[in-house]
Amino acid sequence: MGSANYKKRMTEVLWELLDNVLNTEEPLNALFGSLELLAGLMNCEGGAVWLLDTETQRLVPVVSIGKVQFTDISVENGLGVEGIVTASGQSVVVESTLSGNYPGSIFDEYGLKVQNMLCVPLKSLADTLGCIQLINRRDGAGFSDEEQMLCRQAAALVAFAVEEQGCTVSAGEKKEVLISLRGVTKEFPSGEGVIRVLKGIDLDIYRDEFVVILGESGCGKSTLVNIIAGMDHLTDGTLIIDGKDFSSPTEAELTRFRREYLGFVFQQYNLMPNLTAQENVKYIAELVKDPMRAADAIAKVGLTDRAKNFPSMLSGGQQQRVSIARAIVKNPKIIFADEPTAALDYRTSIEVLEVFEQIVRDRGSTVVMITHNPEIARMANRVIKLRNGRVSSVRVNLRPAQAAELVW
Ligand SMILES: Nc1ncnc2c1ncn2[C@@H]1O[C@H](COP(=O)(O)OP(=O)(O)O)[C@@H](O)[C@H]1O
Ligand SMILES: [Mg+2]
């Protein structure tokens, strides 16, 4: 600590952060990038950015990284470390406690013992907008004066950007958890032993939200979604869906759950070649209790004039739209889409994403989409980033992008 190299790195981080703040149009992305930079520099176990909802005077965690994934939580302004920092505009440092745990921290509820913490205000010219909080240095060192100063400066830059862009949050709406995972692991047999692909996933997915699960190839996205969607069993942990425990379901329970609850869209369209577009949809509709009309589902994906075509007569994008129609015709509570545009070119991908956008808007269904493309993640209400079998971050998009705005 305190070496010339480290100081150089601190200066570089400040520049990087400035660049990130100036060049990111979406303030939340700037917040997220800044948090990642600061937590990375100081090698912290976790961190969060809290913003004040001025109407309710409560603080909402809009971005979190590392061990602690905040879900449904808010803190009263003036209370708790976050509230004190925001209300007073002063930073708070909690130094390493020898045996222990900083008492009364909301992190307790999330199973993280706070050994040390730095919390700095997001202070703009007029107001304090919230705070940036960093938890538990892995090396156990305290936060030096220089580091505290760096964080305060960084927070001031970030606050400026947030204020310029007018970033608002609302703690008022109470979200309902539809899917809840705790400590979910998944191992596959490999040679003599096993490989652990999911390493303890804690995650809540809310009713009617559009969630993107983002991560590089091989990080465990499909494995995770296959478990949530009842296509694979978890090794350890709990999975609750709509209040029901699906941690170790019977095959019969699973089959019923998949049929009545879920719609799927995969990278491959998996259409029946000898059925027309509409027949492909109708055949699925006949399996469930309360379906939409096949013709209506076809209309929703904009293929009415192609309803009588066989898959071989349709483009890749059109075939994917048929498979979306097949997913929505069941009136499912949850729609899963695993890399639905991975096989499509850019323009066709956007068309397919527009269909998803419309489904989210019109039907208010919960949509869980997997992608490795960060640009697509901009459409989501929340972005869950996986890395190497763990949730590495959760980000709320306060203003989700429209499909038509995406570029890659
Ligand atoms: N049935 C399986 N048996 C053994 N290993 C598997 C199995 N399914 C997936 N894996 C491994 O798990 C890891 C994560 O795979 P996957 O969930 O498909 O990743 P992603 O969808 O993020 O690309 C990969 O290393 C993959 O090889
Ligand atoms: Mg995959």
The gist of it:
The protein has 408 residues and is of the alpha+beta class. It has 11 helices and 16 strands. Helix 1 packs antiparallel against helix 2.
Characterise the protein shown here.
By secondary structure, the chain is α+β, with helices and mostly antiparallel strands. It has two domains: 4-165, 2-Layer Sandwich (Beta-Lactamase), CATH 3.30.450.40; 207-234 and 248-405, Rossmann fold, CATH 3.40.50. The protein has helices at 4-23, 27-41, 80-88, 145-165, 221-228, 251-261, 277-285, 294-300, 316-328, 346-363, 374-377; strands at 44-53, 58-66, 75-76, 92-94, 117-123, 128-137, 177-190, 193-206, 210-214, 236-241, 244-245, 262-265, 334-338, 366-371, 382-387, 390-396. Strands 1, 2, 3, 4, 5, 6, 9, 12, 13, 14, 15 and 16 form a twelve-stranded mixed beta sheet that branches. Strands 8-7-10-11 form a four-stranded antiparallel beta sheet, with helices on one face. Strand 15 and strand 16 form a beta hairpin. Helix 1 runs antiparallel to helix 2 (27-41). The longest helix is centred in the middle third of the chain and has 21 residues, at 145-165. The radius of gyration is 23 Å and the shape is globular. The model has no long low-confidence stretch (mean pLDDT 88). Residues 221-222, 338 line the site of magnesium ion. Adenosine-5'-diphosphate binds next to helix 5.
- Uncertain segments are none
Tell me the Rg in angstroms.
23 Å
CATH superfamily of the largest domain: P-loop containing nucleotide triphosphate hydrolases
Bin the helical content.
25-40%
Distinct small-molecule ligands in the complex = adenosine-5'-diphosphate, magnesium ion
**Separation of termini?**
40 Å
Secondary structure tally: strands: 16
Query: What is the annotated CATH architecture of the largest domain?
Result: 3-Layer(aba) Sandwich
